[in-house]
Amino acid sequence: MAMSKRKRARIVRAVQYAVLVVVVVVVAVAADWGRVANAFFDLDVAGGMFPEVITVALVNTLIYTGLGFGFGLVLGLVVALMRLSSVRAYRWIAGAYVEFFRGLPALLVILAIGSGIPLAFPGTILDRYVSIMIALGIVGSAYMAETIRAGIQAVPKGQVEAARSLGMSQSKAMVWIVIPQAFKIILPPLTNELILLTKDSSLVLFLGSSQVQYELTQFGRTELNQSRSLTPVLVAGICYLIITIPLSYLSRYLERRTGGTKIRSAEATEVAQPEEATK
Amino acid sequence: MSDEPAVRVTGLAKCFGDLKVLCGIDLSVATGEVVCVIGPSGSGKSTLLRCVNLLEEPDEGSVVVGGVDLTHEDSDIDAARRKIGMVFQSFNLFAHLTVLNNLTVAQRKVLGRDRAEANRVALANLEKVGLLEKANAMPAQLSGGQQQRVAIARALSMGPEVMLFDEPTSALDPELVGDVLEVMRDLADEGMTMLVVTHEMHFAREVADRVLFMDGGVVVEEGPAEQVIGAPEHERTRTFLARVLDPIHRVE
Questions:
Q1: Averaged confidence pLDDT in chain B
Q2: Which domain holds residue A191?
Q3: Can you give the residue ranges of the ABC transmembrane type-1 domain (chain A) (predicted)?
Q4: Which pairs from A173-180 meet CB under 8 Å and 24+ separation?
Q5: pLDDT tens per residue across span A222-276
Q6: Distance CA B233, CA B244 (A)
């Protein structure tokens, strides 16, 4: 059958539009929009959530995420350095740590930390903030360790050689030359980790909390039970998006900005080894 | 000072896997002397240079710089490297630091100088290489030639006794080579001890006190620049020089 390429493309596009129209029509006709509107857009219920949804829930989500991210970053850096260590045992432990915690659902880790630490060290009554920090930190650190390791390895070898040739020890070169550049490279993926952790912070509701400690998800769920309306879910969701969408724009912006330096450093490593290349 | 040379390399050997890169090199550079190492790609000259400050660990032989045996297992390599400046083919300026901070970071973190002192030394060296006005620029904003002059100033800021140059002009556009060579020539005139791996035969001829021709991991020929480049004794040296000096019209 002879059909020109352009004609075929036009037909394919028309079919795609048709599918879209059918789906929209079916959903519009089939769903009971009155009930959806009643459930999700109850302005009285929404109004009743303020100002606590911002002053308590949103603030707590930010606090928990910040604690977890900060601790996770430090832990991730330590694990990344262990993975790159010349001591085989450290490399092995760090590798196992990453595989273990990346392979488990965040919820399991949080539950295990929440009840596991008091069990392992009897008598310790952990401050709730501390256990949240440790739990979320561990969840984030496994991913961040891999990101940081990749960032450290992406810093051209010549940078370390230059630092060493100036008399810097291996650790001074790491601290003053390699790690600052590594973090510049991994700023976009780290921002993505922050977004993931913002969402994972909802899981701390399983650690139990009093009302002033509610973060967005638990706050929304409690309101949901009280009001018999789905509006709190919508409001909590919008609050998450207020945090995550700017972060994702930030991440994309950083990616565009550092994308340029990545290409430049790739060129630099290319000219670094002409002698090897001609061997 | 005694007769002890600034750099003395004895019986140096280095393998990468099965590849023997250096097969017993003896070399000495007297204080204030400029020695150029020439030779084809893969002849081991860069590896030799990198062994002098132990960026590459030699398999055999000894490296003594300023009377300190770097290859002795008790020697403090970091301390020794402070006295050995190194300039790389690909500049290797610290990409996250301004030009000024490139020159001060090691002074402060290694030598323990305070910021004012480090800045004073750095600015003096930037002036020396003619880039004082670039103090606050980032490396990426500079041309290759400027970056290499900053790299030289960075090495000089540590107050080295010996300077190593690893093909310092090979990554540069031809019109930028001259500025870098001029800085190196000034340095030689001031009496700096220099070991230079280079393909710039004119520079070697004019500036070097002595020239080494390396091929296949051994020193084939060495002597005054006039002799090695002007009237080489060995066939391998002649073939190499013919290719380098007249790449287009060469006859096999």
A1: 92
A2: 42-278
A3: 58-251
A4: A174/A81, A176/B105, A176/B109, A177/B94, A177/B105, A178/A152, A179/A77, A179/A152, A180/B96
A5: 888 888 888 888 889 999 999 999 999 998 898 888 654 443 444 444 333 333 3
A6: 17
Per-residue pLDDT tens digits for A62-115: 999 999 999 999 999 999 999 999 999 999 999 999 999 999 999 999 888 887
Q: pLDDT tens digits for A120-150?
A: 777 777 778 888 899 999 999 999 999 999 9
- ipTM of predicted assembly, 2 dp: 0.92
Contact with chain A for residue B18, Cβ under 8 A: no
Asked, as a colleague might, if the bond just before B168 is cis with ω within 30 of 0, I would say no
Residue B13 covered by a domain: no
Query: Does A36 reside within a domain?
Result: no
- Is B227:B33 a contact under the CB 8 Å cutoff? no
Whole-angstrom distance, CA of residue A156 vs CA of residue A147 = 16
- Among A275, A278, A279, the strongest candidate for a mutation testing the B interface, having the largest count of B CBs within 10 A, is A275
Domain count for chain A, please give it: 1
Number of folded domains that form chain B: 1
User: In this structure, what CATH number is given to the domain that contains residue A266?
Assistant: 1.10.3720.10
Q: How do residues B94-141 score in pLDDT, each as one tens digit?
A: 999 999 999 999 999 999 999 999 999 999 999 999 999 999 999 999
**Is A183 part of a structural domain of the chain?**
yes
Q: What percent of chain B has pLDDT over 90?
A: 85
Q: How far is B111 from chain A (nearest CA, A)?
A: 9
Q: Is residue B72 part of a domain?
A: no
Position A234 in a domain: yes
First to last CA, chain B: 49
B112 is a domain residue: yes
Is residue A146, in this structure, part of any structural domain at all?
Answer: yes
**Which residues of A are less than 8 Å from B46 in CB distance?**
275
Within a domain: B15 = no
Q: Which residues of A touch B (CB under 8 A)?
A: 156, 158-159, 161-169, 172, 176-177, 180-181, 184, 261, 264-265, 268-269, 271-272, 274-275, 278-279
Contact A163 B41 (CB under 8 A): no
